[in-house]
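[Meeting: bench + compute handoff]

Bench side (C.D.) handed over the final construct sequence. Compute side (W.E.) agreed to return the predicted structure before the next meeting so the bench team could plan truncations. Sequence as handed over:
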Amino acid sequence: MVESRYRCAHDPWQDARLSFAEPPIELTAPLLILPLGLLIWGCIPALAGVAVQASDTGEHFQLARKTIAVVAREGAVRSLVRLLKPFGRDGDPVRTEVSEVRSGALPVLLIPSPPANRAAMTFLATFLTHRGLPWVHSVNVSKGTTLDAQATDLAEKAAKLAKAAGVDKIDVVAHGISGLAAAWWIRHLGGDAHVRRLITIGTPWSGTRMAVFQRGTLARTLLPGAAILDDLVPKNVPTIAIGSPTDPFVVPSASAHPEGAVAVVLDGAGHTDLLISARAFRAVFTALSEPMGDSSPAEVS
């Protein structure tokens, strides 16, 4: 009888042990909702791009391992770029102290693609600075305006960098559609007198079918076959076009490599993914450092 009462007795320490061993769901769930929501938000456009890309090439859409990897990385990087936006306000050009300035180095203007801002270029800027480039400056580009308006804005920001560094010419590195604005400035607004070299990363030189998912005047000019994109590659400024055949936002992928530019092909990369890609960083640094070669495509591992 005594033994039975002992087994049924309430043990307060058992409740305490359970409360410590099983954290309340309501405390951890909100911490998971934000990153999970951002990841889904980033993956959906990339998945749509992969489907449009398959349709464009006439292939059957399938989630192969390579496709899943591209979509997952793209979603993660797009989420990271969104989280960095509060730190991307415009600032003045500032010289960074480096242990040894690379011979022949010019100031480098880094231009992100809207809706991302200059914070998205932080990793590339750090990479270049650590390799002896003291003047690396990122700027923001207005979203939803025309190429001409964006190019005019870039001209002013480029002049500000050149003046701060005390030089006549700079190098320009632009991501996505900002490469078109930079090319417009160089080609139509006299930028060729101020730019030594133009490097584009994932820029749809001939337009992209993904523009149908965007709104505004600028989106209509980004569709394949748009007259405004004709003959946009600068004639007097060496141009290096870095792109990937698996970029889900440049469809068709050949649009990233226009005739007249040196083509650098990074297989297996995404679009926003190129902003944190070590292969893309090395390609940019090489393009800034080496003499111009021919315009045949180059594979970078």
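W.E. noted at the follow-up: The beta strands are 108-111, 136-138, 170-175, 195-201, 239-243, 262-265, 298-299. C.D. will use this when planning the next construct.
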